UniProtKB/TrEMBL annotation:
SMART domains the record matches: AAA
Identification of the protein by name: Sugar ABC transporter ATP-binding protein
A GO term, aspect molecular function: ATP hydrolysis activity
Domain ABC transporter, first and last residues per copy: 5-235
Naturally occurring in which organism (per UniProt): Streptomyces olivochromogenes
Keywords, ordered alphabetically: ATP-binding, Nucleotide-binding, Transport
Origin superkingdom: Bacteria
Region feature (Disordered): 369-399
Keyword Iron-sulfur on entry: no
Length: 447
């Protein structure tokens, strides 16, 4: 049997007055795979522990199949937990580790048939007689999974079960967990701070920040229609470009978003979303552009809905199948607090120290600034949409990261024409809430 798990206005304080989870409401359907995603310390594990009954809610209700579970001890919740550190008993073999909870739950019964069936399912029959210290990390986690599965629980609660494993194994086990839980059809709540893991595993993803639910939706929804700038920045690699902008919508009808030295003209016919932006006239906004919203091409190649800007190549990240190009477009990046690893911003140079390697590299870069223009550039067209020249040295570099194919031979200091697809433009207000596409469109994407 699998079960519905509901959190109704749940808050948790460990110390009086400090809520680490704040009025969280969430309905997890029977058989659903829900991922709790958020940066370290945002309260994910606390939520999981409240569902397990290891912590009690300070306010609100945790309901199992519609019934308040506040007084139900963990042992009566029929849930299995899998932790990051595997938590195997070191003095027991794999077989005994898997069979242990069965012996506790049904003392008179021989656990072997269920242990064997579970081991077959996970392909770990040959590991059953080994002790944990004789197993690799991935093998230990498989045994830990086996221990959870063998009980036939009504829900799995997994707390970063893969984060102690190397990347390759993590991907492999991720696929295994996805197919196992689907096959078993058991409600699963999975905690992670890894957005790629969340997107690839979850039927839905609930994004938490500082104990507050930001958005819950399918992976497609949270990626394509993030409710706010935090979700937009937390989900997706490379991280979405967030630039500080100003909406200009004078009475003569032309509308644009100024990005410092350049601007994005919004030409008629406007979409409904763009029309709604008019009310932001004169206001500062945050413009979000995922790397796929911008391509390297001349203004003359613009398709309908694309507008031209240009960028100075600051850094090229070769990734094999693709290349990430960091451009300086003369705009100011918007900073989102609470993200785990903000994109590093190089400090503004104030004083030059004589003779260092860094200085020589900087000199070279300064020389390149006036340097070559890429072949694909058409000097006559490249200025379209620009307010003026590129900024002088000292501005924060690398405000726009664009994904492209390795075919372009791009080097530091090149000035490159870019096309921005306005259909992929996000605009957030000063509080970080999404205003374009309009929030009203949120529910109808694929839910
Ligand atoms: N037993 C406790 N007593 C006091 N504070 C606690 C306790 N457990 C957790 N906290 C605090 O509650 C907040 C949320 O912790 P929690 O472990 O739920 O976060 P998390 O999102 O799971 O983080 P991580 O990804 O780092 O595990 C943190 O600030 C943490 O320090």
């Amino acid at each position: 049997m699998t079960r519905a798990i509901s959190l109704h206005q749940v808050s948790k304080s460990y110390t009086r007055g400090v809520r680490v989870v704040e009025r969280l409401s969430l309905d997890i359907r029977p058989g659903e795979f829900l991922v709790l995603l958020g940066p370290s310390g945002c309260g994910k594990s606390t939520v999981l522990r409240m569902i397990a009954g290891l912590e009690s809610a300070t306010e609100g209700e945790v309901r199992l199949d519609g019934e308040d579970a506040g007084d139900l001890p963990p042992s009566e919740r029929d849930m299995a937990m899998v932790f990051q550190n595997f938590a195997l008993y070191p003095s027991m073999t794999g077989r005994d580790n898997i069979g242990f909870p069965l012996r506790i739950e049904t003392p008179g019964e021989d656990p072997r048939p269920r242990v064997d069936a579970t081991a077959r399912m996970l392909g770990i029959e040959d590991l059953l007689d080994r002790f944990p210290h004789q197993l690799s990390g991935g093998e230990r986690q498989r045994v830990a999974m086996g221990r959870a599965i063998a009980r036939h629980p009504s829900a799995f609660l997994m707390d970063e079960p893969l984060s102690n494993l190397d990347a390759k194994l993590r991907n492999h086990l991720r696929a295994e967990i996805a197919s196992l839980t689907r096959e078993l059809g058991v409600t699963t709540v999975y905690v992670t701070h890894d957005q790629a893991e969340a997107l690839s595993l979850g039927d839905r993803v609930a994004v938490l920040r500082g104990g507050v639910l930001q958005q819950v939706g399918t992976p497609r929804t949270v990626y394509a229609l993030p409710a706010n700038v935090f979700v937009a920045a937390f989900i997706g690699t490379p991280r979405i470009n967030l630039l500080r902008g100003l909406v200009r919508a004078p009475l003569d009808g032309a509308m644009s978003i100024s990005l410092g030295k350049q601007y994005l003209p919004l030409r008629e016919p406007w979409s409904v979303d763009q029309r709604l932006l008019r009310v932001q006239q004169g206001r500062e906004v945050i413009v979000g552009l995922r790397s796929e919203a911008v391509r390297l091409a001349k203004p003359s190649e613009a398709r309908p809905g694309e507008v031209a800007i240009s960028g100075l190549v600051e850094h090229v990240e070769f990734q094999g199948h693709e290349v990430l190009v960091h451009f300086n477009t003369g705009s100011r990046p918007a900073v989102v607090p609470d993200l785990e690893a903000p994109r590093p911003v190089r400090p503004v140079r104030r004083r030059r120290r004589e003779g260092s390697l860094l200085d020589r590299l900087r000199d070279r870069r300064a020389g390149l600034r006036a340097g070559p223009v890429v072949d694909l550039d058409d000097p006559a067209d490249a200025g379209a949409g620009r307010d003026g020249e590129m900024p002088p040295e000292g501005r924060l570099p690398g405000d726009l990261v664009v994904r492209t194919t390795p075919d372009f031979d791009l080097r530091h200091g090149m000035q490159v024409p870019l096309l921005v697809d306005l259909a992929h433009l996000f605009v957030f207000d000063q509080h970080g809430e999404r205003i374009c596409p309009a929030p009203a469109r949120l529910p109808d994407l694929d839910e």
